[in-house]
Write a structure and sequence with these properties.
The protein has 90 residues and is mainly α. The protein has two domains: 58 residues, no CATH class; 30 residues, no CATH class. Helix content is 72%, strand content 0%. It has three helices and no strands. Helix 2 packs across helix 3. The longest helix has 32 residues. The protein starts with a helix and ends with a helix.
Length: 90
């Protein structure tokens, strides 16, 4: 608990130290779980869901052999996804 207090108050950062099962609960321990989940992981879930939709709708395989063409193919799928979403919204 002292390390978490130092990280939060003195440094002004948020710790990402994993919580041990059965450890005593404290203010900073409970706060660190909430901060990690809402701020960091929520963004990751949004990105992963978009990637999942792109793979399902537009095939998750790039058929190009060279890296520049693979990048172009991926960008094209991103543009197609944006058009797909625009059509869905309007």
């Amino acid at each position: 608990e002292e390390i978490r207090k130092c990280i939060n108050e003195e440094v002004g950062a948020f710790d990402k130290i994993p919580l041990k099962k059965g450890a005593t609960t404290g203010h900073y321990r409970l706060n660190s779980v909430t901060i990690f989940w809402h701020d960091v992981y929520a963004r990751r879930m949004n990105v992963e869901s978009v990637i999942s939709v792109i793979k399902r709708r537009f095939n998750g395989v790039n058929f190009s052999r060279s890296t520049p063409l693979q990048n172009k193919e991926t960008k094209l799928k991103d543009v197609l996804y944006n058009i797909y979403r625009a059509i869905q919204i309007f």
